[in-house]
Amino acid sequence: MKVAELFETMDVSLRMRLWGKYVGTLIATCVPLFLVLSIFMGYIYAASQSLLVIPLFVLAFLVIAVPGLLFVAAFSLACPMVMPVPLYQFLFAGYWLWGNLFLKQQVLPTLSRTILTPSGSVIANGFFSTNTEILGTTPVSASIASMIVLVSVAAMVMIALERFLKWQQFH
Q1: 22 within 8 A of 30, measured Cβ to Cβ
Q2: How far apart are CA 159 and CA 133, in angstroms?
Q3: Is the Cβ–Cβ distance between 122 and 135 less than 8 Å?
């Protein structure tokens, strides 16, 4: 925070700095999540004694978790550029609860059962038939649509952020 002038003196383009921050943010969130989920993988491996658990686990992690992480990381970089960080943190906490955890909520409209759910529950349900009691049956096409929408929105946010930062440099 508050080191933009220092970075602007370096011989690195704005695009490289922005994408470096994005990749760093992704790695910083993926590694702990992957480590925690590896504990579960180890438990499943110990119970099944099948090495097939490892590639299936990695595939499931990439398919279920990564699209949502791409989506959240893009917004977590972009939103603090246009609003104060404490406001973004408050709004993000509310969004995460509203958009991911209110699964059985019938009164308040929520993103939790839509293709915009970054938690990966729709993707997991469509591909692996998980949480069927809460989400019902999710077709595979909805899971694919969720992956495409989450990744596409993340890309659009990063492109918009790069253009905003370039515009901000010249104004």
Answers
A1: no
A2: 38
A3: yes
